[in-house]
Protein 1
Amino acid sequence: MELLVLLVTPVMLLGAWISGGMLERRHLKSLLLLESGSSGVLAITIEDLPPDWHVESCELVMGNVVISQDYFKRVAASIKSIFGGNIGVLEPLLERARREALIRMKGVAHARGYDTIINVRIETATLASSRGNGKGTAGVEILAFGTAISLSNGRGAKV
Amino acid sequence: MIISNTQEIPGKTIVEFFGLVSGSTVRAKHIGQDIMASLKNVVGGELTGYTELLSEARGEAIRRMSHQAEDVGANAIVNVRFATSSVAQGAAELFAYGTAVTVE
C-alpha cells in the first residue's frame, strides 16, 4: 500500500505538471483571442453616468467561472506557504479566472444588445470540497456582475 | 422587473421604497459530477459542472427575489448584491438581495 502511494504520487505530480501547464497555456491563448474580439463592450466600475448619457434600458448581467488548481501547483503552493511571501504559482489561476468571468459577462451583455456595463463588481468565493474532511477546496468561483445599459444616443465618441 | 446593482435605475427615478427583498437557494451536485470534478482537480482548469451549478442556482435566487418584489408591488430592484457561502461539504448557498422600489 505504501509502495503504491510512493509510486502514484510522483506520477500524479508529473501528470498534473504537464497537463496543468498545457491547459493553462491553452486557456491564456483563448483568453487573448476572446479579449481582442471582445465585442467592444465597455465595462466600468463607476455607477454615476455623465449627464449626456441617456439610458434607454438596463439589466443585470453576470458571468461566472469555477476554476481549480492542478495538483502539482497545489503541492508547490503548500510548500511555498511554509516560508510565506508571494505565492506566485497561485496568481495566474485567479487572474485567468477573472478575465474569463469578465469576458463571459461582456458576452451576455453583447448578446442582449447592450454595449456598456456600469458598476461592475468582481467577487471571489471558495467552494468546500465534498471529499475528505472538507479541508481542501473544490474550486474557486469568480463572479463578475454589473448593470448593462443601452444608450439612446449611443456611446459613440464620448469614450 | 428591472434588476440593477446600481443605487438607482439609470434613466428612471425612484418613487417608492418597499424595503429589502432577498432570495436564496442551497445546491449540491450529485455524486457523479462530484467525482468528475475531483478528477479535474488533479489536472486543474475549469470545473464546468460547478460553473453551471452556481449560475443556475444564482438564477434561481434572483427569481425568488423577483417574486418577493412582485408580491410587495415593486417594479424594480436596485443595489442587488450576491453572497456565496459553503454551508456544508459539497453544497453552496447562493444568496441575492436588494431593495425593492417602484420606478417611473
Note: Chain B touches chain A through 39 residues (CB under 8 Å).
Protein 2
Amino acid sequence: MNFIWNFPLFSVVSCLFCGVICSVLPRRAAKTLCWSLVSIVTLMSAGVLYFTASTGESFTYMMGHYPAPWGNEVRAGILEGAMALFFCVVMLLSLVAGAKYLDKDVEESKQNLYYSLSNLMLSSLLALVYTNDIFTAYVFVEINTIAACGLIMIKGNGRSLLASAKYMIMSLLGSGMLLLGITMLYDVTGHLLMTSIHEEVQNIVSSGSYSEPMTVIIALMCVGLAIKSALYPFHSWLPDAYGYSTPSSSAILSSLVSKAYIFLLLKIFFRVIGWEVILDNKITDILFVFGIIGMMMGSISAIMQKDIKKMVAYSSVAQIGYIYMGFGLGTLEGVIASIFHIFMHASAKSMLFISLAELGEVSRGKTLLTKLKGAGYRNKLAGVAFTTGAFSMIGIPLFGGFISKILFASAAVDMNSTKMVVTLVALAVSTLLNAWYFFRAVIRIYTPHRKEKDKYFSISTAAAMVAFIALNVFFGIFSDIVIEGIQTGLAMFL
Amino acid sequence: MGEFFSALYANLYETVAVVLFGIGFTTLLFNRNMIKKIMGFNIMDTAIYLFLAAKGYVEGRKAPIVVDGVTSMEAYINPVPSGLVLTGIVVSVSVSAVMLALTIRLYRRYHTLDIDEIAKAVQKEGK
C-alpha cells in the first residue's frame, strides 16, 4: 500500500470539510481557503495521475477495512487521475478568473457561501470520478445537483432564480430515473460495487435470464444521465442556467458538471454493465441518433441568438451531441474521440465564458452581438482568449477541436456502414454551422469601433486567462500524449 | 392475460411502486405549480424506496437486529436495501429543502407559484 493511494479519498473529504468551514468564515478567509485547497487538491490529483502512469496499473482503495463485496471502494487509474487533475485545473482557473465578478454579482455577505458551494461541487465531481460504488455515485450526483443549483441561483436576480428552478426540475427527473435504474440493478445482481456488479452481469447475460430488466436498467440509467448532461431533447434547462449565472458559475457548469455525468455514464458502460452488453442492447444507436440531432439543433439555435452568452450556451448543446455521437459509434475509437472531446470542450468552453464576461464588461456590461463591436481592441487579452476558444470550437488546425474532429472522422471511417456516412455528413455540416456563428462573433469583436482603455483590469483574471489559453493550445499541440493516455486509461477500464 | 395479472399480483409492491413512480414523475414534469412539483418529486422518490424495501423483504423473516442470540442468516431480511432507503431519504429531504427554499424566494418576488407565470413575469422584468 502506497501513501498516494490515500489521495483520492483525501481530496474528496478535504473538499467536503472545507465546504462546511467556508460557510462560517468571513469572505476573504473563505476565498483564501478555497483557492489554496483547490490548489492542494490539484497537486494531489497530479500525484495520482503520476503514480498510475508510472506504475501502469490502477489501484483500488478499500474504505474502513471491509473487504470487497461488502465495503465501499475508491478506484483510480490513468483516466480517473487525468480527469480529476483536469477538473481541478479548470475549477481553479474558473474561480480565479471569475473572482472579480463575484463582488458585482453576489452580495458581500453571501460570497463565502459561493466558495462553500464551489468546494462541495469539486468534492462531488472528484467523488464521481473516483468512486467504485454505484450508490455512492448516486449520492454524490445529488450533492452535485444541489451545489450546481446554488451556484446558479446565488446571483439572486429573477432570471437566475427561474433558471435554477428549471435546472432543479430537470435534474431531479434525471436523478430519479438514475436511482430507479440503480435500484433495479441492485435487485438483479445483488451488488453495489461496480466490479462485483460487472461480474454478476456477465453471468446473468451468459445464462440468458433477465434480458428485459437489463434493457430497462440500461435505458433508465442512460436517459437519466442524458437529462442531467443536457443531451438534445432534454436541453431546455441549459441555455438559461449557463447564460444567466455569474461568469465563474457558467464556466464551472458548462465545462465540469455535464462532463462529470458523462464520465459516470462511461463508467457505467465499461465498468458496471460491460461494453458488449451495452452494444447488444443497441442503446448506442439511440444515443447516436440523438447526438446527431443535438449537433444540428444546438448549432441552429445558437445561430439564432442575439446574446453571445446564450449563443455559447447553445453551442454546448451541440458539443454534448458530439460526445454522445462518439459513444453511439459503438467502437473504442469513437469512445476515445469522445473522451478527448470532453477535455477539449471543457477547456475551451470555460475560457469562452470567462473571456465573454471580460468583453462584455468593456462594452457597457452587455454581451449582445451588436454591443460587442470592437471589444477585442478594448480588452486585447480577452479578445485573444475568445478567438482561441472559437477557433478550437470550429476545429481549426493547431487547436484541440481540430484533433477531436479528426478522431471522430477516423473512428467513423473505420465503421464502414450507414453510420459512417451520417457521421461524416453531420461533422461537415456542424463544422460549417459552428464556423458561421463563431466567425460572426469574432469578426464583430474585431470590427474597429470607439477606442477605450480597459478600466477594470485585474491581474488574477489576466493570469487565469493566459493559463486557459495555454491549456487549450496544449490540447491542440500535444494531443498525442493525451490520446495515448486516454487509450491506456481506457484499457485499464476494461 | 390472466397470467399477466397474476404476475402483477405476485409482485404487488413493485407494481404499485412503478405506478407511483409514474405519477410522481409526470407531476414533477408537467404540473405548473411549484409546490405540487415538489410533492411529485417526493412521491417519485418514495416510490423507489418502496420498490427497494419490497425487494429487501423476505416473507416471514425479522428485522436484521440480533436479539435472542439467533445468528443464522435465514432468520433475517436483507439489511442493505433498508440502509439504502435511509440514505436515499436523507438525500431527498435535503433536495426538497433546497427546492422549497427556491420556491419561497420565487414566491416572495413574483407572488405566484405557477412556473409559467413566473417565466412571464421574468420576461417582463427584462433583466
Note: Chain A has a mean pLDDT of 88.
